[in-house]
């Protein structure tokens, strides 16, 4: 049965149980559905039995796509159109799907046994001084060969099925060579590094996905449901569409729905990214994960459980992580070149000199992967260590490489370009000191962030507010206070209208403040308007300098993608001179903007800090989470996490990336240069097989010395 799990215009995700661990069917669906007019891309994930389809929503609709799928699945699979033969039980792709289900305990046990045997051999040789046979038919050689089977299988498939060269072939070649030449311990080293790396990679990936699901969970176990005039406590898991759910101050909303009674100020930062509370009343839509700061509302549930917006966003983030296109590591590319060069050099030496000894010398010089693995790996390792010292967590060398070359950068607004702390930007009135005195006196006991900004600004100017007033907060309007014999109103235009205060003198000024991206707060005393206060979020330090450095470093397009009001976002984008602005965007809209920018400009780097940025971070080629105080979800999803929110770190990150690539290239040329010299000397008979190994020591030391310069990078 085909189920539609999530859909937005132009994109649909379906669950197809028959796809589970069925690579031939996945290939068949991708090929056939991709030929349907209007389908732009079809991507199957056999591991979770899902299919993601991107399509022109003006030409197709979800039900039509599902009908096409049913027809495709009903037809017999044509093996000629598949990348593998479904009748072939040795199909590596199908086996890989099964391997992904292998219990982690089995993988750990395999690694422990191999490491234990290697430890036994080392103790026997170096402590007990008893030699251990390492020839191909010895126990050590046979165990090494058995442990190498997965690597040999990968190398075989990439060579003869995928017809591409990678580090798998290079390492497999070195491993077999080591066993045949009586160096089984060298083979053990390669196997242990690969097994350990794969195990760690799988562990980190699974942990990240579990963390995403856990942190995006509602963390609400029970809810209050209105039934026949009474409130009954019900488990959230038992809520159904149509239930009337009551939510009070300090509680999270457990469902998506519409308010049918009451009004409240909601914190929807996890949904929209807006830091200020949003006033909601009867008829307004609300989403699970929102937080009621003030008020009581009754919601008619329209979506519950896995159908809520927050749950669907979690699924989208998880799917985006799975569907990121695999990118070959720089070492793979260099290894492929050197593998071809080494093979040709060895064969040429054997043909021209007819000397097995000289050919073996050339093979030894070229067989060790140091010149390729170390060229990039040591540079990346040193750079990662340097970045860590500067509180930059980079989750892999490929991310470090790509962040320095991406031509497009996208920024979230609140918490990224600006801080979470509002500040008073301007005060407009006949007597500004009197205006601030009455406003600060009224707001002194208010816990709202805007109130704190007004009080803080007044105190900075030496204005001491009256702390003896009595105030009342009016939802969606503002504050009414009694200070001595005076009545003070602080709030929006609705607040002034309810108090019958004329705003004619300050209406135009307030409109200008709003157009420039500020929040306008009116102040009135005893029924007469005193003026208006413009409040904004503080820009982070070094924003202008960092943007200028990024421009100079080759970034051709800088965009703002924000959940904030379009006018507020546009004003900030204009102030900073950004190339494009996309305001009022929900999380999935942000991801769509990232996709559009990638199609227009190439690789995209997304910089954000909140739950609402998680999907965009996962969708971008490189996601960067700003600030250790930012959302844990964003940090888990991002490829790079910056512990603090200093904007200068972005420019430093790109500079480090470029320097790392330069050092890796230098290392490669150093390694290849010594290898070429070794080939020439070995082919001429000047270099013996024993001396061929010294070539590796020479360029390894040079590579390590060159890469160590990155440890001192600032």
From TrEMBL:
Its EC number is 7.2.2.12. Residues 219-317 form the P-type ATPase A domain. Its main location: membrane. Keywords: ATP-binding, Cell membrane, Membrane, Metal-binding, Nucleotide-binding, Translocase, Transmembrane, Transmembrane helix. SUPFAM superfamilies: Calcium ATPase, transduction domain A (SSF81653), HAD-like (SSF56784). PANTHER family: CADMIUM/ZINC-TRANSPORTING ATPASE HMA2-RELATED, CADMIUM_ZINC-TRANSPORTING ATPASE HMA4-RELATED. This is P-type Zn(2+) transporter.
């Amino acid at each position: 049965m085909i189920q539609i799990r999530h859909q937005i215009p132009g994109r649909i995700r379906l669950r197809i149980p028959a796809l589970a661990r069925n690579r031939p069917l996945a290939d068949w669906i991708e090929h056939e559905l991709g030929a349907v007019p209007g389908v732009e891309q079809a991507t199957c994930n056999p591991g979770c039995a899902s299919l993601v389809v991107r399509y022109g929503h003006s030409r197709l609709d979800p039900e039509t796509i599902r009908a096409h799928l049913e027809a495709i699945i009903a037809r017999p699979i044509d093996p000629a159109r598949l990348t593998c033969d479904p009748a072939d039980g040795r199909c590596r792709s199908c086996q890989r799907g099964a391997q992904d289900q292998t219990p982690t305990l089995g993988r750990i046990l395999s690694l422990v046994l191999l490491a234990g045997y290697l430890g036994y051999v080392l103790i026997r040789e170096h402590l007990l001084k008893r030699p251990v046979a390492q020839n191909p038919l010895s126990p050590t050689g046979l165990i090494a060969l058995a442990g190498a089977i997965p690597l040999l299988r990968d190398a075989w498939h990439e060579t003869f099925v995928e017809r591409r060269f990678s580090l798998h072939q290079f390492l497999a070649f070195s491993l077999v060579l080591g066993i045949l030449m009586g160096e089984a311990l060298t083979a053990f080293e390669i196997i242990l590094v690969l097994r350990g790396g794969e195990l760690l990679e799988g562990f980190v990936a699974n942990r990240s996905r579990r963390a995403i699901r856990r942190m995006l969970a509602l963390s609400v176990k029970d809810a209050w449901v209105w039934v026949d005039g009474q409130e009954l406590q019900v488990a959230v898991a038992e809520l159904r569409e149509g239930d009337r759910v009551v939510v009070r101050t300090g509680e999270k909303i457990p469902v998506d729905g519409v308010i049918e009674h009451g009004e409240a100020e909601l914190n929807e930062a996890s949904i929209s990214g807006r830091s200020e509370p949003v006033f909601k009343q009867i008829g307004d839509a609300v989403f699970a994960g929102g937080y009621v700061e003030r008020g009581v509302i009754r919601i008619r549930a329209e979506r519950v459980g896995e159908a809520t917006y927050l749950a669907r966003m979690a699924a989208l983030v998880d799917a985006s992580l799975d569907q990121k296109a695999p990118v070959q590591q720089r070492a793979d590319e260099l290894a492929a070149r050197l593998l071809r060069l080494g093979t040709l050099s060895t064969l040429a030496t054997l043909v021209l000199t007819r000397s097995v000894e000289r050919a073996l010398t050339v093979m030894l010089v070229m067989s060790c992967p140091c010149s390729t693995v170390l060229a990039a790996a040591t540079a990346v390792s040193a750079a990662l260590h340097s970045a860590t010292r500067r509180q930059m967590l980079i989750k892999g060398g490929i991310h470090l490489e790509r962040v320095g070359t991406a031509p497009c950068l996208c920024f979230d607004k609140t918490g990224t370009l600006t801080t979470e702390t509002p500040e008073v930007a301007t005060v407009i009135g006949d007597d500004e000191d009197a205006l601030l005195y009455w406003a600060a006196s009224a707001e002194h006991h208010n816990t709202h962030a805007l109130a704190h900004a007004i009080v803080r600004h007044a105190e900075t100017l030496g204005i001491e507010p009256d702390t003896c007033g009595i105030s009342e907060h009016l939802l969606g309007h503002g504050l009414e206070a009694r200070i001595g014999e005076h009545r003070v109103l602080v709030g929006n235009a609705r607040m002034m209208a309810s108090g019958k205060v004329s705003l004619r003198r300050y209406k135009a000024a307030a409109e200008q403040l709003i157009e420039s991206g500020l929040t306008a707060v009116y102040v009135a005393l005893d029924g007469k308007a005193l003026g208006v206060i413009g409040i904004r979020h503080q820009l982070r330090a070094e924003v202008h300098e960092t943007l200028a450095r990024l421009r100079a470093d080759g970034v051709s397009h800088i965009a703002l993608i924000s959940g904030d009001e379009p006018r507020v976002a546009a004003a900030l984008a204009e102030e900073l001179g950004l190339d494009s602005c996309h305001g009022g965007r929900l999380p999935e809209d942000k991801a769509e903007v990232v996709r559009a920018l990638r199609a227009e400009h190439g690789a995209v780097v997304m910089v954000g800090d909140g739950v609402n940025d998680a999907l965009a971070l996962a969708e971008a080629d490189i996601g960067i989470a700003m600030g250790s105080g930012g959302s844990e979800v964003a940090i888990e999803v991002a490829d790079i996490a910056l512990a603090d929110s200093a904007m200068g770190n972005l420019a430093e990150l790109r500079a480090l990336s470029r320097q790392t690539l330069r050092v890796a290239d230098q290392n490669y040329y150093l390694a290849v240069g010594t290898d070429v010299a070794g080939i020439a000397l070995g082919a001429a008979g000047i270099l013996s097989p024993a001396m061929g190994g010294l070539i590796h020591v020479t360029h390894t030391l040079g590579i390590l010395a060159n890469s160590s310069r990155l440890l001192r990078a600032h």
